[in-house]
Design goal:
The chain has about 350 residues and is mainly alpha-helical. The protein has 14 helices and four strands. The protein has a four-stranded mixed beta sheet, sandwiched between helices. The two termini are about 25 Å apart.
C-alpha cells in the first residue's frame, strides 16, 4: 500500500513539474543576429547594413566598450566589428587596412567565417568595386519544410519529451504492480475463479493503456496541445500509451523485485526518450533514431501540435508506431503468460 501511495505521489508531482517546466520555457524564437560596431564616419555604411532583415546593429563609442560588450554578451551580441578610424579613406585609396572582429570564445567557426566575409564585402562596397569573384546564377531549393521565419520554439519542442516522461512514470508503476501480483500470487487466486488467462491479460492491458492515456492526455491538455489537430494528437497519445503498456507487461514479468523492475523499466524506456530528445534540435533525425520505437509517436506529436499536420502527413508515423506496438505487446504478453503459467 505504501508503495502504491509513493507512485501516486510521484505521478502527481511529476505532472505538476512538467507543466511548470513547459510554461517556464520561452514560447518564441528570436532569429535576429545582433552585432556591435565601432567606427568613425561610417554612419551611412551602418545605415545600409541596418536595413537588412534579421540584422540588428548596436554602435559603441570606443573599441574597448565594444570588446567588453561582446565578451560579456551584452544585449545578446553575437560578434563585434571594430573599424579603424581611417577605414573609409584607406579602402577608397586602395591601401591595406585592418578591421578587428570580436567574437565570444564559444562562437561556432561558421559564424566567425561569416563575419570575415561580411567585412570583406563591406570593403568592396566602400571602394565601389565588385567582389573578385562572379557568383553564378543560382536557384535555392530547400529540401523538406522551409522553416526560415517560422521556427518552432523550445516550448513546443519539449512537448514530445514531456509526453514520454509521463508515459514512463505510468509504465514503471504498472510494471511494479504486475510484479507485486506475481510475487504475492494474487494472479493465482484470480485464475482460481472462472476468470481465464486471457481475461487477466486483457484486464492488465486495458488498465495500463487507460491509465497511461489519461495521464498523458491530462498533461497535453494542461500545456494546450489540442488546439491544432486534436484527433491526430489523441491517436498518437493512445498509440504511445499502448506501446508503453506492452513494455510494462514485459518489465513486470521479467523483474522480481523493485530494483529489477527499475532496471528493466529504464532499460526499455531510455531508447524511447532518444527520439524525443532529438526533436529538441533542428534538422532531420539520424537513421538509427528513426528505427527506435517512439520515433513515430514523437514525429506525429511534433507535426500535429507545431505544424498542424493532418492524417495524410502523419499516417507513415502511425504505421511505424503500430508495428512497434505489435512487437512490444507480443513480447509482453508472451513473457507474462509464461511467467503466470510457471507459478
Amino acid at each position: 500500500m505504501s508503495r502504491n501511495r509513493f507512485f501516486v505521489f510521484i505521478t502527481v508531482l511529476g505532472l505538476l513539474s512538467y507543466i511548470a517546466l513547459f510554461w517556464a520555457l520561452p514560447s518564441t524564437v528570436d532569429e535576429t543576429i545582433r552585432l556591435g560596431v565601432h567606427g568613425t564616419g561610417i554612419e551611412t555604411l551602418l545605415a545600409q547594413l541596418g536595413d537588412q532583415e534579421g540584422l540588428a546593429l548596436t554602435s559603441f563609442e570606443t573599441s574597448e566598450a565594444l570588446q567588453t560588450a561582446v565578451e560579456e554578451k551584452q544585449n545578446k551580441l553575437a560578434a563585434g566589428i571594430d573599424f579603424p578610424d581611417d577605414f573609409l579613406s584607406s579602402v577608397a585609396a586602395g591601401r591595406q587596412t585592418t578591421v578587428k572582429v570580436f567574437v565570444p570564445a564559444d562562437t561556432p567557426p561558421e559564424i566567425r567565417d561569416a563575419m570575415r566575409s561580411m567585412v570583406r564585402e563591406l570593403a568592396f562596397l566602400v571602394a565601389g568595386n565588385q567582389p573578385p569573384v562572379s557568383v553564378a546564377a543560382e536557384e535555392d531549393v530547400v529540401l523538406g519544410p522551409d522553416r526560415v521565419g517560422d521556427q518552432v520554439s523550445m516550448q513546443e519542442r519539449m512537448r514530445p519529451l514531456l509526453a514520454i516522461f509521463a508515459l514512463m512514470m505510468e509504465m514503471f508503476a504498472l510494471a511494479a504492480l504486475i510484479a507485486q501480483e506475481i510475487r504475492s500470487r494474487t494472479v493465482t487466486a484470480v485464475l482460481a475463479t472462472p476468470a481465464r488467462m486471457s481475461d487477466f491479460l486483457a484486464a492488465k492491458t486495458l488498465l495500463g493503456t487507460g491509465l497511461a492515456f489519461a495521464e498523458v492526455a491530462l498533461l497535453m491538455a494542461a500545456i494546450r496541445s489540442f488546439a491544432g489537430r486534436p484527433l491526430v494528437l489523441v491517436v498518437a497519445l493512445l498509440l504511445g500509451a499502448f506501446l508503453v503498456t506492452g513494455f510494462a507487461l514485459l518489465a513486470g514479468a521479467t523483474g522480481k523485485d523493485f530494483i529489477e523492475i527499475l532496471f528493466w523499466s529504464m532499460f526499455l524506456m531510455i531508447p524511447m526518450m532518444i527520439p524525443a530528445g532529438a526533436a529538441l534540435f533542428p534538422g532531420t533525425a539520424a537513421t538509427w533514431i528513426q528505427m527506435l520505437p517512439s520515433y513515430g509517436m514523437t514525429e506525429a506529436i511534433v507535426r500535429a501540435t507545431s505544424y498542424g499536420a493532418g492524417w495524410s502527413e502523419t499516417a507513415p508515423f502511425f504505421a511505424m508506431t503500430l508495428a512497434w506496438c505489435a512487437v512490444a505487446f507480443g513480447a509482453g504478453l508472451f513473457a507474462l503468460k509464461r511467467k503466470v503459467e510457471m507459478l
